[in-house]
Fold:
Amino acid sequence: MSTDLLLQNIRKHISLTGVEGDKIISKLKKITLKKKQFLLHEGQIAHEVAFVISGCLRSFSVDENGFEHILQFAPAEWWITDMYSFISEKEAHLSIDALMDTEIMTLSRKNQLQLFDEIPGLERYFRILTENSLVASRSRLIDNLSLTAKQRYQKFCTTYPSLINTLPQKLIAAYIGVTPEFLSKLRKL
Amino acid sequence: MSTDLLLQNIRKHISLTGVEGDKIISKLKKITLKKKQFLLHEGQIAHEVAFVISGCLRSFSVDENGFEHILQFAPAEWWITDMYSFISEKEAHLSIDALMDTEIMTLSRKNQLQLFDEIPGLERYFRILTENSLVASRSRLIDNLSLTAKQRYQKFCTTYPSLINTLPQKLIAAYIGVTPEFLSKLRKL
Structure:
């Protein structure tokens, strides 16, 4: 069942009783998104964080010149939201859409904070996940400042092995910051 | 007293009894760094996270071509470490040094995790701080991909108001990713 995948993921980091697991599941909402459907539009409030059961989401922003910049991919077992909007309840800077038919479970910030009071282990789980996300985000920042496109592509392959052959080339190119033509050359090397 | 600044900072986010505050303080180590002195060298393990009482630290990496890339400044009341090394106990990718004479309190990962078990509120404090750091890091990532140098300089001024007139221009230039000459032109506008 789809909820099993989430509970297994949580139990990789903390121990959880059956009652606690049931309580968490009772606060989640299951949603199915069609390919290209949006979970969040820039300017909306991100009230929820989403856990991907199957498929793949991405978060991205569009700059003044209309160029898309991809911040994150979320294949199965990844969490995704506009963190700024989620924790501040202000307007999201990012949009989130589905790159293929995708099944997710969402948890609202209100329910998350309430669960943190009731199940301290869950706050630990999200503390650990947030630490890992911070490491990944800072590492990508340094990569963008200091690595060559080839090295950034290699990092992408390490971070998202399941996506190398499933995503359209133009999306991977937008993530590492090169043109699709240049990525095609890189892959031939 | 220097410990008051830290306890005040923690109490902005969570409530803490006197006994809990004393227990936290007992796990901290006070260190004074001279200007240009290193707290951490790339390749070492970051066993500690540092809270700045006065002065300013920075974390940075040096790329294959010898260029320095500044990831973070930490003026008073900021925490800083190589998060990757701190949570994984692997070799740090970053170095951390003092930009002026600086007084810090350090907390080891071992003591931090032990305190999380004893004082759940402290885990909440660090969960909140890590969420905020993640928002800042992702925002900078998007900025580097999509903003002009002028807009990145404006963001720097918002993020680090206390540093605009205290840091050498070349450090601010290295942070926003322009030459010192170009930054000088930006400031005249």
Observations:
- The first helix of chain A runs from residue 2 to 11.
